[in-house]
Amino acid sequence: MRLVIQRVSRSAVKVVDSGEVVGKIGRGLFILVGVGEDDAKVDAEKLAQKIVKMRIMKDPEGKMNLSVKEVNGEVLAVSQFTLYSDTTKGNRPSFIKAAQPKQAEEIYNHFVAKLKEEGIEVQTGKFGAYMEIDATLDGPVTIII
């Protein structure tokens, strides 16, 4: 799995076709979630645990010293197969290393469920939909796992 984690003061995701806002959070983490062809639920579990404990939220002195759980922050997790793009040949990215949609959705949903089990408020995008994302980065802080 590949994650792009951004600390945000707010974030929202809207499905373009319907115009419906399907996920919206205040202070917390906006996470793009990519699932690869070799990924399994155990990978989702390990990364969810890492997210819950990762100390990238500001403490009262403005230092990255607290976890999203410690600040009662939220998570907006959006599936993003393009994190598995391969651009080594030609000008058009290849996505053959990304998981097939059924597998990707299952592992993505498992990742979200594991975050929720830890007491994190989690919002999501709509799997497979074309979406617009609005995020106000805090810092900015971006971590890639």
TrEMBL record:
Briefly state the protein's biological role.
An aminoacyl-tRNA editing enzyme that deacylates mischarged D-aminoacyl-tRNAs. Also deacylates mischarged glycyl-tRNA(Ala), protecting cells against glycine mischarging by AlaRS. Acts via tRNA-based rather than protein-based catalysis; rejects L-amino acids rather than detecting D-amino acids in the active site. By recycling D-aminoacyl-tRNA to D-amino acids and free tRNA molecules, this enzyme counteracts the toxicity associated with the formation of D-aminoacyl-tRNA entities in vivo and helps enforce protein L-homochirality.
Q: To which protein family does this belong?
A: Belongs to the DTD family.
- Domain topic, free-text comment: A Gly-cisPro motif from one monomer fits into the active site of the other monomer to allow specific chiral rejection of L-amino acids.
Q: What is this protein called?
A: D-aminoacyl-tRNA deacylase
Which InterPro entries does this entry report, sorted A to Z?
Daa-tRNA_deacyls_DTD, DTD-like_sf
Which reaction(s) are listed as its catalytic activity? a D-aminoacyl-tRNA + H2O = a tRNA + a D-alpha-amino acid + H(+); glycyl-tRNA(Ala) + H2O = tRNA(Ala) + glycine + H(+)
Q: How does it assemble?
A: Homodimer.
